[in-house]
Amino acid sequence: MHTLTLRGHEGECRALVAPRYASAAERVPPERSLEELGVGLLLRMCAGVTCDEDLSWGVRGKPALAGAIVPGTNDEPGMDAAPARPPVSGTPRISISHDAGMVALALCPDAEVGVDLARIGFDARVARRVFGDEAAKALGDGSTVGERTAFSCAWAELEATLKGIGTGFAADFRRHPELLDGWLHETRVIMGDGSLRTSSAVAEKDLAPGGPRETLGPTACLSCACRVPFDLEVRWEDERVLALFARGL
After folding, report:
1. Which distant-in-sequence residues (6+ apart) come within 8 Å of 10 by Cβ?
2. More confident residue, 245 or 11
């Protein structure tokens, strides 16, 4: 969801979302406020979340729908803990991310899932610290759109995996790379016009002076991670948001 859709409708949004998101929108800087409301709206539309009791949270912050097992609540990274109440058959696993004026909610019916949105950019220091010297060299110096996109996609894939595990960056994956084994990824670059591309399909001409920077330039990477094979299906919810307002819910 593009959160610009919500601008001017903040009051209606607060009435629609679970209280924790209405409250969070009041505590964060204005540029993040719409993202908090957007998360609440996606959870309502896609997962039926209307109150705080519809959600539960792992110790490391991974969200779950009420009745689902919350991973990452034990000391051992990636270990599932017993849910607060018995799991409900068919309850999908979820993951949430927001950045670059967008929010994403991933749902998977039968396996843990992680999702991450990462704004297109480059940070050499982060590349070395997170990915290691050799991998950082392979990512380049960020001087081209291809290198910036590759770095952002690599970051999004890593964070999506750690969200799926349920530990976030609390997991020491550099010393224990086996924590990342078995996770599959689907990653796309979100362009300025809302279209999706693979990273290899993003070209320098997209950012050339006088080129289609405003309509086609890459804005963020979207990555999903899961332990079972899956097909990534992305659905933009902007029109449904406007329909909610129109119906006066």
Report:
1. 25, 33, 34, 37
2. 11
